[in-house]
Every structure is written in C-alpha cells, then in structure tokens.
C-alpha cells in the first residue's frame, strides 16, 4: 500500500511550503559560506560569525528530507529504493566534484593532497564525512550533507524492516533512534556529521509519522501556539547561543515545518509552478555554490585582479549562483535523470 494515502490532504496540498523553506535555507547557506570562504565580516548582520549560526539551516534540510522520505515511501525493496535515490543525485555531484577538483588543482600548493586514491575515493563516492577512515575536508565540502544523508537512508530502511517484522509502530522506533544518537554522541562514538544528520532526519520522520496518524491537527489555537513557540525558541536560540543548534533542531524548525503543513499559501498559489522549480533548483544551488566560489578565487589569482567584496557583491554572487543553478538543472541534471529513468524502464 502506498503510504501517501494515509497523509492528510492538507500536507499533500502544502508541500509548496517546503519548497519555500528550501529556497530560503539554501540562500542563507550560500551567504554563510561566502563570508566564511572569503573571510568577510560586516557591520550589522553577519551570515557567518554572527550571533545566529546560519550554517544550522542544514538541519532544516535534514528534517525536510526525513519528512519527505516517509511521505513518499512506497513499500518496495530497500536496495531498489536506495539505488533510486542515489541515481538521482550521484551524477550531478560527481560532475561538480570533478569540476571543483580541476579548479582546486590550479589553486593548490600541494597537488598530492587532492590527487591521491584515498581522497578521490572519499570524495567521488561521498565517503569523506561520517566515515572515520575516510574523514577529511571534502573537495566540494558542502556535499558532506549527502555523505550522511545516505547513512540516514540506510537507517531509515533498517528501521522500516524492524518495524514491519516486529509490528512496532515506526514512530516509536524513530524516537528511540533520536535517543540513541544523542547518547552515542555524548560518549563520542558517532562522528558529529552523522549525529547532526540522524538526529534531524529522524525528527522529520517523527513529524510525518504524527501527521500520518492524524495526531497533528490543524486548528486556530494550534497555529497560534506554534507561532508563539517559533518566536520564543528563535529568541532563546540567540540568547543561549551554546544551545542554539539544539533549540533550532528540536523546537524552531519542527514548528516551522508543521506551520508549513497547516498553511494554505493562497497568496503564492499562482506562483506555484515557479516556486516548485526553484525548490528543485535549490539542490543545484547547494551543490554548486562552493565550486563557483573556488572558480572566482582561481580567476582572481590568475588575473591578479582582487575584487573588493562587500554586501552587494555577496548578494550579486547569490543571484549568479541561482541563475547558474537553474541552467544546470534545466540542461544538465534533468536530461541526465530522464536518461537514467528511461534506461531503468
């Protein structure tokens, strides 16, 4: 049976809200990394090194991925399901990795650090984060997200199998996973990236599980409570900066996700197709923003021209990466995925 039919019609209608969140989150992460890579500090708001850590929006990506994984799950074989997911993003990440490798080879002082078997295997097979033996800074480092997302998929299908065999509601098993992940982190067994991924991904699964069982119900009071909770937790995360990631992961982002499920989005309904495409393009933005930064560094070094970077150049870069990402999505990723789907059929 297709699990989709157990999800409320409200959730089905409002996945556009997730696209909006992905657009915003990917843009914030680009700005965060731009300041980090080019070592920039501004007066006023800073996306890197400021009071709020915009890098934690990766947790929001994991929560959305967890929700959508359960939302779209069909009771097929785990191997086939994981293979399908990998084939969707491996081709474009491989192209991005190879491109970045060439660019960084021009910039590198030590070519061997890039061109050795361990580094190449770790990066092209997405093993450089979450796997202790291969642990290293990635060639296209933001793709650490995908390294550990694969681990999340494997745990997801393992838990699904346990749930089916032992007839235990998977929502309880997902809660156990969150508890185990926190415990393993405290005794320093789990790599930090795996910990962040599994914790956030499982929270997304729990939210979707509650939605499936109609334990999350839309009402005026529920929405009001969620808005208050979101505002209070967001302010708390700024005040208690040492616990910022945890507050965002367990309170702010889940409240935001549930509000998206409840919201009607009538105002942006006429832009639905555009927002849906931009939601898909946000993946390209995430994958390609660091390669574009490395390219900018390479051009600057070769030409000897130093760009005076400021707030305006940062947002200009954001605009350029969105345009480039759309072109890559339209003329590279989509044809590749179409070809793969045709061969599978």
Automatic annotation (TrEMBL):
The UniProt GO MF terms for this protein read: acyltransferase activity, transferring groups other than amino-acyl groups; hydrolase activity
Q: Where is the Acyltransferase domain?
A: 16-325
Q: Which GO terms describe its biological process?
A: lipopolysaccharide biosynthetic process
Per its UniProt record, what Pfam families does this chain match? Acyl_transf_3 (PF01757)
Q: Which residues cross the membrane?
A: 15-34, 46-69, 89-107, 119-137, 143-159, 171-187, 222-241, 247-265, 310-329
Give the superkingdom in one word: Bacteria
What are the UniProt keywords, alphabetically? Answer: Acyltransferase, Hydrolase, Membrane, Transferase, Transmembrane, Transmembrane helix
Give the GO cellular component terms, alphabetically. Answer: membrane
Q: What is the protein named? A: Peptidoglycan/LPS O-acetylase OafA/YrhL, contains acyltransferase and SGNH-hydrolase domains
